């Protein structure tokens, strides 16, 4: 009898020990990362709603002003100008990225050129470069006096002098688009190529037996089967382009004369720029962007057809 | 079976090569311009260098304080990588293979991050960091970068770990292994491929990180390479010292190129996984 009690106590002690151990383990495994997430991600997101209602330069006492920051924002012509630029980027960048990636992915997977393997590796390379390097490379391309683009134009007989593509209001915005597209194509080309490779060969073989040509196979088999992935990619690209501003910050910082300013960059400069600081107003602009992004996400989810195909 | 080559094949190949050229050409151009002298460069942006001026590189190294910013980068990237990788791995294990109260709630809150664009949180995040006295400090930046949750990494590692058979853990428990020993001796070695993938992505993320160091570091002596290159470009607007900047950009690309050569397969597979799982 005493034996069984001893066993019970021992196993209970063991259980307690195992339990304590489990809690220590869980504490180490959960608290630092999840705590960091709460502190640096979730809490600031909630706080931003409150900040948006303050008049605060970040140092002196904050003043609660209710919704007046939002009213100011809606009347702020710089906000509207920035949003217009956002709209342009949001349409053009994802569009070109997807079209170019699809074409490249199709050629890499469906043609048996021996250099395809090398090309696939090369195409992905810009995606491992930092935004700073990508932006600087393109700034070199667009430079007026010594840029590659003007040099190339001169080479084929078009001399436009020392035209600064990024320094001119009428061309700066359009010049940023290729740089942004260039930095994004590789990733999506690989994603689409892998999706195309996953399509069973038997489908194509059956189609060939039935006499389907190249085009029929492309539009009846390949495209429908990669559509779900194109859809997810489009969502990512649209949302990413809408909130992205790093490449613009480095290439032009919104200039010249605000002709390349976007809403994220406008907010960034309101908060951290050199001229003046207004944390409250910056947060209000940030909230507007937040609402736009979440709405865009939900709209795309709802209205872009999500037809999955089984094979 | 050999495919029949048609006229269209020439067109397609031209398309492929054209895109390849947009990548190779600027890179090669920057590298060979970095070996010229400034007058040579100003005279003709196409001509090859008459002699290789390797001194541009030592000049870039000294002028842009690459020594210091390399140390900063090593500290920031290394610290964030070690700390972040440890916590991400142990976190993924706890969240995917252990049962405890509140697990569902934690998952739910983490999933919320997929809806948060993060940009509206920049200002409050800065204020919090300032209150904690973590601004203008590389250590503060390490804490910000390595403590947090990422759905992408959790999916990647969690997927890996949940494919390991439960019997492995059970037999380790039978042998009297504690939870920590089990994690360290059984789970970590078996999840190595997943951990390496996460590590490579984290490395690139930290090395390429521009915005956070740019916001949080006010002292240029603390700049990592990415921010240093940005301010080098700003300086160049006044000095017109192009070739040195080209050399600097080339130096800044070296770590990316090395990582890419070593891990390109892994990177391409991981990137696809991220997109498909969303």
UniProtKB/TrEMBL annotation, chain A:
This is Sugar ABC transporter permease. Keywords: Cell membrane, Membrane, Transmembrane, Transmembrane helix, Transport. The chain crosses the membrane at residues 23-47, 87-109, 121-141, 179-199, 219-240, 247-268, 280-300. One of its GO terms (biological process) is transmembrane transport. Belongs to the binding-protein-dependent transport system permease family. Its main location: membrane. It comes from the Bacteria. It holds the Pfam family BPD_transp_1. It comes from Paenibacillus agaridevorans. Gene3D superfamilies: MetI-like. GO terms for cellular component: plasma membrane. It is a multi-pass membrane protein. The keyword Membrane applies. It is found in: Cell membrane. Residues 83-300 form the ABC transmembrane type-1 domain. The lineage of its organism: Bacteria, Bacillati, Bacillota, Bacilli, Bacillales. InterPro entries: ABC_transporter_permease, MetI-like, MetI-like_sf.
């Amino acid at each position: 009898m005493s034996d069984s009690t001893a066993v019970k106590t021992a196993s209970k002690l063991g259980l307690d020990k195992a339990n304590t151990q489990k809690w220590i383990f869980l504490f180490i495994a959960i608290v630092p990362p999840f705590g960091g997430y709460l502190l640096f991600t979730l809490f600031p997101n909630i706080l931003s709603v409150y900040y948006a209602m303050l008049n605060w330069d970040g140092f002196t006492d904050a003043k609660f002003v209710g919704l007046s920051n939002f009213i100011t924002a809606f009347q702020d012509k710089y906000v509207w100008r920035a949003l217009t630029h956002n709209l342009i980027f949001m349409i053009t960048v994802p569009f070109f990225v997807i079209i170019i990636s699809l074409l490249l992915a199709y050629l890499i997977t469906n043609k048996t050129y021996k250099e395809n393997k090398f090309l696939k590796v090369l195409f992905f390379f810009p995606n491992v470069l930092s935004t700073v390097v990508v932006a600087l490379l393109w700034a070199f391309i667009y430079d007026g006096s010594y840029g590659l683009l003007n040099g190339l134009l001169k080479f084929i007989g078009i001399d436009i002098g020392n035209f600064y593509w990024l320094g001119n209001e009428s061309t700066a915005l359009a010049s940023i688009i290729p740089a942004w597209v260039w930095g994004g194509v590789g990733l999506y080309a690989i994603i689409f190529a892998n999706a195309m490779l996953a399509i069973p060969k038997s489908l194509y073989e059956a189609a060939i037996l039935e006499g389907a040509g190249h085009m029929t196979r492309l539009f009846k088999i390949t495209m429908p089967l990669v559509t779900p992935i194109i859809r997810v990619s489009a969502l990512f690209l649209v949302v990413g382009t809408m909130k992205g501003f790093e490449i613009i910050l480095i290439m032009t910082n919104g200039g010249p004369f605000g002709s390349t300013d976007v809403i994220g960059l406008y907010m960034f400069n309101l908060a951290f720029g050199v001229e003046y600081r207004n944390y409250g107003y910056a947060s209000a602009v940030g909230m507007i962007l937040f609402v736009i992004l979440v709405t865009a996400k939900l709209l795309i989810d709802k209205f872009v057809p999500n037809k999955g195909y089984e094979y | 079976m050999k495919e029949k080559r048609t006229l269209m094949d020439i067109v397609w190949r031209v398309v492929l090569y054209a895109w390849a050229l947009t990548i190779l050409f600027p890179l090669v151009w920057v590298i060979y311009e970095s070996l010229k002298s400034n007058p040579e460069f100003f005279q003709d942006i196409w001509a090859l260098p008459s002699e290789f001026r390797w001194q541009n590189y030592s000049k870039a190294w000294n002028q842009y304080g690459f020594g210091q910013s390399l140390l900063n980068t090593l500290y920031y990237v290394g610290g964030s990588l070690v700390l972040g990788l440890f916590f991400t791995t142990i976190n993924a294990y706890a969240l995917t293979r252990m049962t405890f109260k509140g697990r569902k709630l934690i998952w739910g809150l983490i999933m919320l991050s997929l809806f948060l664009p993060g940009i509206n949180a920049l200002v409050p995040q800065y204020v919090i960091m300032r209150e904690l006295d973590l601004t203008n400090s590389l250590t503060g930046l390490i804490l910000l970068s390595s403590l947090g949750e990422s759905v992408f990494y959790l999916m990647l590692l969690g997927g890996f770990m949940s494919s390991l058979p439960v019997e492995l853990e059970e037999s380790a428990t039978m042998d009297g292994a504690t939870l920590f020993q089990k994690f360290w001796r059984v789970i970590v070695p078996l999840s190595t491929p997943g951990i390496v993938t996460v590590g490579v992505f984290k490395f690139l993320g930290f090395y390429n990180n521009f915005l956070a160091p740019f916001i949080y570091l006010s002292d240029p002596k603390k700049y990592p390479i990415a921010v240093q290159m940005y301010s080098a470009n700003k300086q160049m607007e006044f000095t017109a010292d192009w070739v040195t900047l080209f050399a600097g950009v080339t130096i800044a690309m070296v770590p990316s190129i090395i990582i890419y050569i070593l891990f390109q397969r892994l990177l391409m597979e991981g990137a696809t996984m991220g997109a498909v799982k969303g």
